[in-house]
Design a protein that fits this description.
Layout: H1 2-104
Length: 105
Amino acid sequence: MEDKKLQKQIDHIEETVDIIARAVANGFGAVEKEFGAVGKKFELQEKLLVTVTADIRDLKEGQLLQDRRLDEIEVVVRGISRAVDKDAVKIITQDRRIARLERVR
């Protein structure tokens, strides 16, 4: 009798362990699927990051080129500004001389 009770308990424990093992296996299968999906998302993010990094590098190179061009333009504009200032001073000076000469007459 004791043997039958013991065997019954063992069978029940084996069934319970079997149920738990299947549940764990199914759970791990779902986890593996999720990890696969997450892995694909990471790969996509990595590709996007590489693309964004390349775009930023291109923008920086373009900005450096524009800065160089602006520096060149600034040098030319400063030269023109100095020439205009000198011409303006000469015109004002000549206007004063002409005004004095006209007053003298």
